[in-house]
């Protein structure tokens, strides 16, 4: 298939996916680097800063449940456009905040809209690019990775040059641009539907039945399916390990591995950067070769080796242990692809995306706190790292289930009858 035929008629959808993906993560990553500059203007209590740090996975979990119902009411394209409208307004709201309460409220609204965007993007890729799921998911997840580490690099210099309000608000431009492709597609779809209705009326034929209308109880079926739980646990492993290590890896490196604070910061950046190559490679490998089991095995062995190295020989090869601990991040783009490969229908993909991300982010939100509690209780880092190893072991049953080439619809029909 040539490049022209690949994108013909889908340029708007491509632009929409790119802009939404970038907006989802840049909105999350732009605040924390300039919190000190904000505190110079008004007080941000520690409990507010803590809530802002906890808000992303909590909001993502809640709106993972809510989004499928919203999609049934409004459709994928309208929901994507609405999410970007809210993101734009919330980003501007943060930029003009005059106190900590307003900053927190705008941030909560922002993360709610980001949670909606997280859920709708995989089904949108499945809808508009069914022949290039791997390529588009690689692009999408790669942009998420870029948008996670780009704002921290530019936020402080921009804040120093133009003020923290401009530094926070400038990301609204991308969210505003992301509205345009989806509104255009909705407008075109509505015009096409009107023409089709007029043609049917003129011919006197019965109106066609919309076979893609999502079944209202699909999300409620997923907790009864092992495949849905296996994907949710996989997503949970990825999000929990990332959130926990972003929160605690610098302290582990300084207190347990004996590195300097500057080196710990550099190693944390290395850990975060590990997500980018996996985001590009994993979707293409999965869609071309379908080696799901191999991916789980690589993530498991690398994760356990990183834990063992950091526990028993933290100073011997610290950089290697950090790289190995970052390897399970490859499960994130893998789940984004598998949501599309393990759902046969449109409503199945939407519901599976919502269920997987809701459960995954809910578990992910618990692990940074669990790490802190266990560290306080044991006064050391090895037990905390072993907890991470136990988390990685959950890849074994999840991988066995996910590696089987079947869909949630197949599994339901085999267990309960017609989908």
UniProtKB/TrEMBL annotation:
Keyword DNA repair: no
Record-level Gene Ontology MF annotations: transmembrane transporter activity
InterPro entries: MFS, MFS_Cyanate_Porter, MFS_dom, MFS_trans_sf
Gene Ontology CC: plasma membrane
This protein's record includes keyword Protein biosynthesis: no
Membrane topology category: Multi-pass membrane protein
Primary localization class, coarse: membrane
SUPFAM superfamilies: MFS general substrate transporter
Domain of life: Bacteria
Keyword tags: Membrane, Transmembrane, Transmembrane helix
Domain Major facilitator superfamily (MFS) profile: start-end pairs: 11-406
Subcellular location: Cell membrane
Residues that span the membrane, as ranges: 46-67, 79-97, 103-125, 137-156, 168-186, 227-249, 261-286, 293-313, 319-339, 351-373, 385-405
Pfam families associated with the record: MFS_1 (PF07690)
Matching PANTHER family: 2-NITROIMIDAZOLE TRANSPORTER, PTHR23523
Protein name: MFS transporter
Phylogenetic classification of the source organism: Bacteria, Bacillati, Actinomycetota, Actinomycetes, Micrococcales
């Amino acid at each position: 298939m040539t490049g022209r035929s690949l994108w013909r008629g889908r340029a708007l959808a491509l632009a929409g996916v790119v802009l939404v993906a970038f907006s989802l993560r840049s909105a999350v990553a732009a605040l924390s680097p300039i919190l000190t500059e904000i505190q110079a203007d008004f007080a941000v209590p520690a409990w507010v800063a803590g809530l802002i740090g906890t808000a992303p996975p909590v909001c993502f979990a809640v709106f993972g449940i809510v989004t499928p119902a919203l999609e049934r009411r409004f459709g994928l394209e309208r929901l994507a456009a609405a999410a970007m409208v809210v993101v734009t307004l919330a980003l501007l709201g943060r930029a003009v905040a005059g106190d900590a309460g307003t900053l927190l409220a705008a941030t909560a609204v922002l993360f709610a809209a980001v949670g909606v965007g997280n859920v709708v993007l995989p089904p949108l890729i499945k809808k508009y690019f069914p022949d290039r799921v791997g390529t588009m998911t690689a692009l999408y997840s790669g942009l998420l990775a870029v948008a996670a580490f780009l704002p921290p690099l530019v936020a402080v210099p921009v804040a120093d040059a133009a003020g923290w309000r401009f530094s926070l608000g400038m990301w609204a431009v991308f969210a505003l641009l992301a509205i345009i492709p989806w509104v255009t597609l909705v407008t075109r779809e509505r015009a096409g539907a009107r023409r089709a209705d007029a043609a049917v009326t003129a011919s006197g034929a019965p109106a066609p039945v919309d076979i893609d209308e999502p079944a209202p109880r699909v999300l409620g079926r997923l907790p009864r399916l092992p495949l849905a739980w296996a994907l949710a646990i996989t997503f949970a492993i990825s999000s929990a390990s990332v959130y926990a290590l972003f929160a605690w890896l610098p302290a582990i490196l300084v207190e347990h591995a004996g590195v300097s604070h500057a080196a710990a910061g550099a190693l944390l950046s290395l850990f975060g950067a590990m997500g980018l190559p996996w985001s590009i490679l994993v979707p293409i490998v999965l869609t071309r070769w379908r080696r799901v089991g191999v991916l789980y095995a690589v993530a498991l062995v690398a994760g356990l080796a990183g834990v063992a190295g950091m526990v028993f020989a933290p100073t011997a090869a610290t950089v290697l242990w950090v790289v190995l601990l970052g390897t399970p991040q490859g499960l994130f783009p893998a789940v984004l692809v598998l949501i599309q490969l393990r759902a046969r229908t449109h409503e199945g993909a939407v519901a599976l995306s919502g269920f997987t991300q809701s459960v995954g982010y809910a578990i992910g939100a618990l692990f940074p706190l669990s790490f802190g509690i266990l560290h306080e209780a044991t006064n050391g880092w090895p037990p905390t790292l072993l907890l991470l190893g136990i988390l990685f072991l959950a890849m074994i049953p999840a991988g066995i289930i996910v590696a089987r080439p079947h869909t949630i619809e197949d599994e339901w029909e085999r267990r309960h009858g017609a989908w």
